[in-house]
Amino acid sequence: MTALADVEYLRAANRGIAAMAQMDLEDFWGSLTLSFPGESRDSLLAFVPALTSQYGGMSATLAAEWYDDIRPTGTLITGAFRAPLASPVATSAVASTVRWGARHLWTLAPALTLAVVSGAVTEYVLRPGRQTVAQAVRQDTDRRVRYARIPSGRETCAFCLAMASRGFVYASEVSAGRKGFNDYHGDCDCVPTPEWSDEPQIEGYDPDRMYAMYEAARAEAGGVLALKGNGSIEDDDLSILQALRRLYPDELTDGVVVRDEP
Questions:
Q1: Whole-angstrom Cα distance, residue 173 to residue 177?
Q2: How far apart (Å, rounded) are the C-alpha atoms in residues 82 and 14?
């Protein structure tokens, strides 16, 4: 059974990887001549994708080794399996975010560029690790496995609470029953945590309470339904997240999910 110590180990290691990436980014930013915005933008376009690829590879390797370490062994049921590494975020996606943030270089507040890129870098660096866990769960020869998104700290954003409230149902988008379950915001500390036991329990993680909060917010939002682009009818998640923040202001913060296309 996966333990809280396992979750905290990966969370702390990810914080370390993200911190190293941020230090490198800030050092590079300090080397730019911001009075030449075009050159600064081009330098960032060359540097940032390489940065996220380097540290993204580290997070994927860490996640794969972690998954293999906590995976049950020694039975015929589990079978032989090694977690495959997810790829770094595509250069085109990283470059798109850099270009979007770099528009501030031509303003009186060029430092806003760093704020935009910095938030995205943490998410892009940690995404390969998270995707490594997700795809390992999908491909694991032991089909008992599924994972939960486990947040940490006294405060969690409404989006992450909604995702975490689902419990250990994540094996695929279909099994989770939600679109966007693999999205994370820039400073997200959720850990996708696999479990193979029939009754998983991790200290401090209470998906039932979280789901009760979600249901209360859904009722507060009026159970709003919306017609999605694919023609299906689904809960209006935005209204529910807004209701969550209104109902639980002392417990929830606001996390902005990083998108590849600004």
A1: 6
A2: 20
- Cβ(60)–Cβ(10) under 8 Å? no
Assess if residue 260 is contained within a domain.
Answer: no
C-beta neighbour count of 189 within 10 angstroms: 19
* Residue 84 near residue 157 (C-beta atoms within 8 A): no
Instruction: Answer yes or no: are the C-beta atoms of 89 and 127 closer than 8 Å.
Output: yes
Which residues span the domain enclosing 125?
4-253
Total domains in the fold of the chain: 1
Cα distance between residue 241 and residue 247, in whole Å = 10
Q: Which amino acid is at 56?
A: G
Domain presence at residue 82: yes
pLDDT tens string 93-108? 999 999 999 999 999 9
pTM of the prediction?
Answer: 0.85
Element (H, E) at 95: helix 91-102
